[in-house]
């Protein structure tokens, strides 16, 4: 099997306050590019859409542009920027740091439901 798709022609685009998500549905993989604008914060932009207090999606990702800070339910907190790969388990908040949009590639599989009404 061989499957190639371009993220520049996504299967689906989901818009939400201060950002959007472009999704590729592939065999065995949901791949997404998220763009978070300055001022974006999960608890302000997506909490009402998800219907949960914190983001409950597992993320495996890579930051292409900008900076993103993540705070876990237990209070642990880290910040990443361009060139950083990350694994974030469910139960977190995240927000853009600075005045540059943050672009993230996510390939954990949970993005098929991300930013959809819960």
Describe the protein in words.
With 118 residues, the protein is mostly beta strands. The protein has one domain: Jelly Rolls, CATH 2.60.120.10. 7% of the residues lie in helices and 45% in strands. The model has no long low-confidence stretch (mean pLDDT 94).
Q: Remind me, CATH topology?
A: Jelly Rolls
Percent range for β-strand residues: 35-45%
The first-level CATH class is given as Mainly Beta
Oligomer: single chain
| CATH architectural type | Sandwich
Count of beta strands: 9
CATH superfamily: Jelly Rolls
Helix content: under 10%
Question: Largest sheet at a glance?
Answer: 6 strands, antiparallel
As a whole number of angstroms, the C-alpha radius of gyration is 13 Å
Low-confidence stretches: none
Shape: globular
Please give the structural blueprint:
Elements: E1 12-16, E2 19-26, E3 29-36, H1 42-45, H2 47-50, E4 59-65, E5 67-72, E6 77-80, E7 85-88, E8 92-97, E9 102-106
Antiparallel strand pairs: 1-2, 2-3, 3-9, 4-7, 4-9, 5-6, 5-8
Structure in a nutshell:
By secondary structure, the chain is mainly beta. It is 7% helix and 45% strand.
List its salient traits.
single chain; 118 residues; mainly beta; Jelly Rolls; 6-stranded antiparallel sheet; 3-stranded antiparallel sheet; 2 helices; 9 strands; 45% strand
């Amino acid at each position: 099997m061989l499957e190639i798709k371009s993220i520049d022609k996504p299967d689906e685009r989901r818009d939400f306050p201060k950002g959007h998500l472009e999704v590729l549905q592939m065999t065995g993989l949901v791949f997404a590019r998220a763009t978070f604008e300055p001022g974006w914060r999960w608890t302000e932009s997506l909490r009402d859409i998800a219907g949960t207090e914190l983001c409950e999606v597992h993320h495996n990702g890579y930051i292409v542009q900008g900076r993103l800070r993540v705070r876990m339910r237990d209070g642990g907190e880290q910040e990443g920027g361009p060139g950083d790969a990350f694994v974030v388990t469910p139960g977190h908040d995240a927000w853009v740091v600075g005045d540059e949009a943050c672009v993230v590639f996510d390939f954990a599989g949970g993005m098929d439901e991300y930013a959809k009404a819960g």
